[in-house]
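My main concern about presentation is that the manuscript never shows what a single data entry looks like. For the editor and my fellow referees, an illustration may be useful. For illustration, here is how one protein appears when written out as sequence plus structure tokens:

***
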Amino acid sequence: MKAAFVIAALFALAASDLGAQITVTTDSSAAALASGQVAAKLKAGGINAALAEFRRLQEANAASTPMKLLDDLGRSLIAQNRYKDAIRAFRENIAAYPDSGTVYASLGDAYLIDGHRTAARDAYRRATELDSTNSRARQLADSLNARLRHAPAGTGTSPAP
């Protein structure tokens, strides 16, 4: 157990040195290793390489790629003002974890920050469908819905395909 914590701490430190602040709060050393590998790919090759590495790792061992890995990556990208990359990370997370309200709420956050209010509302709605206890997502969906109903046509911007 102690070794897993040390490995997780080392990979978190390595990830932060690489410019990605990915934190994995799991006892799995495999998850910590995966986090470090994805962060290294992000630094070396960008979001495409990072997502390809995530998919490769998930195919090899799904337990090594917890939902939190891409959620943390996406939030790190938001903190770096890399909103489109964050959206891609969250969409990949949805492909891996389609029944999680958390991943839809995170996608809604990224869409909202990037100015895609309609897509944000839809993501928050889906989050509340999957997790009825997510009051924050419900409140944001309702607020966006009210604003979109009263906004002039064409101001709800949708994300690029």
Summary: The helical segments are 2-17, 29-60, 67-79, 83-96, 101-113, 117-130, 135-150. The mean pLDDT is 83. The chain has two domains: 1-82, 98-161. The chain has seven helices and no strands.
